C-alpha cells in the first residue's frame, strides 16, 4: 500500500535554530497538509497546500512557518526560528483529488531545547 | 472553540465485547466524518468514514453511526481485540472547506485480554 513518508523521524534542535521537516506524499495526491500534535494534546491543523500554494492555514501557522514543494515530489515544512513550544510531533498528510480521506505519514518528532 | 468533541478521554473494554466511542460536533456545515486510529509515535491511520447523506457505514468489525439531528456520531468495534488498543480520533470536514479536517481530542481505548 502506498505510504506518506517523513524525514527525519526525530530531530532535536536548539531554540532559535531553523528546522526543515520533509515529506514524500503518495504520488497523484494533489492536496497536502501539515498537522501537529503537542504531547498530550490533540492533533491540530497547521496548513493545507494545493496547486503550489497555501490554500488554508491556522492561527498556529505564523510567519516563522513556511511550506513549499520545490521539486514536485517533496513537501517541506520549515520553522525559521524554533521556540520551545514548537516541540511536537509533526504529521504530513495527503489527499486524492476527490474524496475526503486524508492519509498521514508516521510523523516527525521535533524536540526544541 | 471545539467544533469536534470527544468527551471521554479514555475507555476500557474487555476483549470480545463491544467498544463504543462517541463524538459530538457543533458545526452543522460538517458533511463528512472520519475516524482515525493512532498508536504512540505513529501517524493517524484512517479507519472508516461516513457522509452526511448516510446514517450508518460498516467495514468489518467497525461500524460508524451518524445522527445528524443530534450532531452525534459513534464508532462501534465488535468484537474488540487487544490490538485495537490505541487513541481514536473523530474528525470532520465540510464541502466548502475540503482543505481542512478538524480533529477531536481523541479517546484512548484499552482492550483488556
Q: How would you characterize the overall build of this protein?
A:
In chain A, 0% of the residues lie in helices and 51% in strands. Chain A is mainly beta and 113 residues long. Chain A has a single domain (5-112), classed as Immunoglobulin-like, CATH 2.60.40.10. In chain A, a hairpin with a 2-residue loop joins strand 5 and strand 6. Chain B has 113 residues and is mainly β. In chain B, strands 2, 4, 5, 9, 10 and 11 form a six-stranded mixed beta sheet that branches. The model of chain B has no long low-confidence stretch (mean pLDDT 91).
Could you give the topology of this structure?
The complex is a heterodimer of chains A (113) and B (113).
Chain A: E1 5-7, E2 10-13, E3 19-24, E4 31-37, E5 43-50, E6 53-57, E7 65-68, E8 75-79, E9 88-95, E10 102-104, E11 108-112
Parallel strand pairs in A: 2-11
Antiparallel strand pairs in A: 1-3, 3-8, 4-5, 4-9, 5-6, 7-8, 9-10, 9-11
Chain B: E1 4-5, E2 10-14, E3 19-25, E4 32-38, E5 45-51, E6 56-59, E7 62-67, E8 72-77, E9 86-94, E10 97-103, E11 107-112
Parallel strand pairs in B: 2-11
Antiparallel strand pairs in B: 1-3, 3-8, 4-5, 4-9, 6-7, 7-8, 9-10, 9-11
Which short descriptors sum up this protein?
heterodimer, A: 113 residues, mainly beta, Immunoglobulin-like, 7-stranded mixed sheet, 4-stranded antiparallel sheet, 11 strands, B: 113 residues, 6-stranded mixed sheet, 5-stranded antiparallel sheet, 0% helix, 58% strand, globular
Distance between the termini of chain A: 36 Å
Give me the strand/helix succession of chain B: EEEEEEEEEEE
Number of strands of chain A: 11
Alpha-beta content class of chain B: mainly beta
Number of domains of chain A: 1
Mean pLDDT of chain B: 91
Please tell me the total number of domains of chain B: 1
Give the oligomer, counting copies of the same chain as homo and different chains as hetero. heterodimer
**CATH third-tier fold name of chain B:** Immunoglobulin-like
Identify low-pLDDT runs of chain A: none
State which percent range the strand residues of chain A make up.
over 45%
Name the largest protein-protein interface in this structure.
A-B, 27 and 23 residues
Helix proportion range of chain B = under 10%
How many E strands of chain B?
11
Amino acid at each position: 500500500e502506498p505510504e506518506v513518508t517523513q524525514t527525519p523521524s526525530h530531530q532535536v534542535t536548539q531554540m532559535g535554530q531553523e528546522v526543515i521537516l520533509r515529506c514524500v506524499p503518495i504520488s497523484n495526491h494533489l492536496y497536502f497538509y501539515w498537522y501537529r500534535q503537542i504531547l498530550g494534546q490533540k492533533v491540530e491543523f497547521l496548513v493545507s497546500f494545493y496547486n503550489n500554494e497555501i490554500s488554508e492555514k491556522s492561527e498556529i501557522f505564523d510567519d516563522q512557518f513556511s511550506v513549499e514543494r520545490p521539486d514536485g515530489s517533496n513537501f517541506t515544512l520549515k520553522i525559521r526560528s524554533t521556540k520551545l513550544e514548537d516541540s511536537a510531533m509533526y504529521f504530513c498528510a495527503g489527499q486524492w483529488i476527490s474524496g475526503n480521506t486524508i492519509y498521514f505519514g508516521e510523523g516527525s518528532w521535533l524536540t526544541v531545547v | 472553540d471545539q467544533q469536534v468533541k470527544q468527551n471521554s478521554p479514555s475507555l476500557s473494554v474487555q476483549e470480545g465485547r463491544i467498544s463504543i466511542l462517541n463524538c459530538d460536533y457543533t458545526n452543522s456545515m460538517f458533511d463528512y466524518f472520519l475516524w482515525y486510529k493512532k498508536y504512540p509515535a505513529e501517524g493517524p491511520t484512517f479507519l472508516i468514514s461516513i457522509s452526511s447523506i448516510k446514517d450508518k457505514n460498516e467495514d468489518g468489525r467497525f461500524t460508524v453511526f451518524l445522527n445528524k439531528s443530534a450532531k452525534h456520531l459513534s464508532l462501534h468495534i465488535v468484537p474488540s481485540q487487544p490490538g485495537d488498543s490505541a487513541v481514536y480520533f473523530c474528525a470532520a470536514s465540510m464541502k466548502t472547506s475540503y482543505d481542512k479536517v478538524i480533529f477531536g481530542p481523541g479517546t484512548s481505548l484499552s482492550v483488556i485480554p
